[in-house]
Please model this.
Amino acid sequence: MAKEGIALKHSGDYAGAEAKFRSALAADPNNSLAHYGLGWLLIEQGKAAGDKAKIDEGIKELQAFKAAAQADQALLQKRLRDTDGALRRLGVKVSSTSGKRRVYRQARRSGPTCPCGADWSGLEGKQVVTYTLAVPGGAPGAGR
Model:
């Protein structure tokens, strides 16, 4: 619902956007995207109409967004740490440098070496998978 609210706001349907944001918040009071969208929408409307009450409500919504976003970030950091542990148990080397997490796996034996059933025959000791996850603000202690 919050994403629909963003789309409505961008199309100029402020009443529809506000309804979507408020519906999203009724369903989940910690929905950071809904707080963000509603906050900026109210501030824009308040500035256009000279309505200080709407601006104040918008500021409160942005403060709620900040709190919800910080909670989301804490949960994300926990999930990243849990994922690191799971990857290590699967034999995946995980390292973290300057706010990015690099994960790669080296083939250790012939045949299927992961639950996905990938056949890594002939790739022993070679790097076979690499990806990088951006970690907001770095992840203190992550990947260690």
In short: The helical segments are 2-11, 14-27, 32-49, 52-89. The mean pLDDT is 75. Residues 90-144 form one domain.
